[in-house]
Write a structure and sequence with these properties.
With 265 residues, the chain is α/β, with parallel strands linked by helices. It has a single domain, classed as TIM Barrel. An eight-stranded parallel beta barrel has the order 1-2-3-4-5-6-7-8, surrounded by six helices. Helix 3 links the parallel strand 3 and strand 4. It is globular, with a radius of gyration of 17 Å. It starts with 10 loop residues before the first strand and ends with a helix. The chain binds 2-phosphoglycolic acid (PGA). 2-phosphoglycolic acid binds next to strand 8. The site of 2-phosphoglycolic acid has 13 residues, from strand 8.
Length: 265
């Protein structure tokens, strides 16, 4: 284990996106509970991020059956309450014992026009309500092709973290998700993932200080499967995985958690 990884407990998160109605979600959570052994989660944290309409049902299953999986959400409003038709408040999520909230996923940035400023405000809303943001960053294929990956990551991280207290940054999770790897079956190589995650950690160090940078967890996301988990988790700056499509199948997701825990991080 490299000294830089010491103390960072990996987090494997399942982003269900807009899949599974509440009955299917109950089934998926139970299935995961039946498969996951105590040894699988002895050294790895696990979260699932269902759609909003599923969260209450999944909460009941996880808590009622003592399943060692944290509840997550995929998004939240900036405001705590008020005239914001169609939005879901971070206060409401915290009340349902949601622990982790995805912020700034590339699908939100792309399809719902979430700017760096909106993402920064959501990140603060999550922290204000005592939850952990899983703050997503990543370059598009066009940015990558013209060599702008590091510049884009620096801009995204700087825009969101500037002004956030150091202790709050230390408690956060950043998910490096290159947009070209999401849902394409073409994951980043471990070398590329490591380079980007190390770069992100360096940017966090310059914005929020060394201590926050060495404490905060950085996940890799984008076409993660059981068979690429170990090589990605072997990277010293990759502290976990954000899994989309492969998290919908409890058996497959359990394999990913198991492979992650085998890396001994
Ligand atoms: P994928 O999605 O694993 O299906 O590529 C990852 C994500 O968008 O979080």
């Amino acid at each position: 284990m490299s000294p830089s990884t010491l103390g960072r407990r990996p987090l494997v998160s399942g982003n269900w996106k807009m899949n599974l109605d509440h009955l299917e979600a109950i089934h998926a959570a139970r299935d995961l509970g039946l498969r996951l052994q105590a040894s699988d989660v002895a050294s790895v944290d696990v979260s699932v991020h269902p759609p909003f309409t599923d969260i209450r049902s999944v909460q009941s299953v996880l808590e009622g059956e003592g399943i060692p999986v944290a509840l997550g959400a995929q998004n939240c409003a900036i405001e705590d309450s008020g005239a914001f038709t169609g939005e879901v408040s971070p206060v409401m999520l915290a009340k349902l014992h949601v622990e982790y909230v995805l912020v700034g996923h590339s699908e939100r940035r792309m399809h719902f026009h979430e700017t760096d400023a909106i993402v920064a405000a959501k990140l603060r809303a999550v922290l204000r309500n005592g939850m952990v943001p899983v703050f997503c960053v990543g370059e598009t294929v066009d940015e990558r092709d013209i060599g702008l990956t590091q510049e884009r990551l620096t801009a995204q991280v700087g825009a969101a973290l500037t002004g956030v207290p150091t202790e709050a940054v230390a408690s956060m999770v950043i998910a490096y998700e290159p947009v070209w790897a999401i849902g394409t079956g073409q994951a980043a190589t471990p070398e590329d993932a490591q380079e980007a995650c190390a770069w992100i950690r360096g940017v966090v160090a310059s914005v929020s200080g060394e201590e926050a940078a060495t404490t905060l967890r950085i996940q890799y996301g984008g076409s993660v499967k059981a068979d690429n988990t170990e090589s990605l988790m072997a990277c010293p700056d990759v502290d976990g995985l954000l899994v989309g499509g492969a998290s919908l199948d409890a058996a497959g997701f359990t394999e990913i958690v198991r492979a992650a825990s085998r890396t001994g991080r």
